[in-house]
Amino acid sequence: xxxxxREEVCEANRELGNSGLVKMTWGNVSxxxxxxxxxxxxxxxxxxxxxxxxxxxLVDMYGNIHDDKLGLRPSSxxxxxxxxxxxxxxxxxxxxxHSLCAVQFAQAKIDVPCLGTTHADNFYGNIPVTRLMSDxxxxxxxxxxxxxxxxxxxxxINSDDMQAVLVANHGPFIWGGDAMQSVVKSIILEEIxxxxxxxxxxxxxxxxxxxxxxxxxxxxKHGEDAYYGQEKxx
Length: 234
Fold this sequence. Notes:
Strand order of the largest sheet: 4-3-2-1-5-7-6
Low-confidence stretches: none
CATH architecture: 3-Layer(aba) Sandwich
CATH superfamily: Class II aldolase/adducin N-terminal domain
Number of domains: 1
Shape: globular
Radius of gyration: 18 Å
CATH topology: L-fuculose-1-phosphate Aldolase
Number of strands: 7
Largest sheet: 7 strands, antiparallel
Mean pLDDT: 95
Helix content: 25-40%
Structural class: alpha+beta
Order of helices and strands: HEEEEHEHHHHEEHH
């Protein structure tokens, strides 16, 4: 099972590298095996084109490295990923990027407003930005506290319906059912942020989408009675 997860996480990281969302090595993808409590994540600072399943790093939910085949350190964002897996029990994969448009919202410390149906098809409402971290949180276990601040942001938000967050002054973390789904969602997030920036430039007074239209577009794809697409067994 873990070898298969290693392959999936490696493929997802390589896809992220090919997506155009990341420069240099500014991003990472992880996946989790809930049964064993083991996370697989990109090694720190390794170029995407050099990734192979064997250099994916296995880490438990306490941050301990397991089955380290090549002696590589995991991503420096590993503690953040761990806190998200602990806080959001339904997620199976996480992507972190510094993609251009999403980071602009994060640095402006502005939620991404839901302005149209492209957004509503994928995220149920405004994409939130976290509060600013305190000096103590930054100086003491920064990456772990980043995860805690994200989880705190979702105290009254359903992490199944809102699968992304912007960390203030930092950038986006995105999740899904598995590693590749989180990469796909990160591509969608960047497109939505780009559309939102253009819309706000054209009309700074633009209003958010009507709730009825948000409900229609999100729920027809993700709701209990969703009817978008084909039946899985069709």
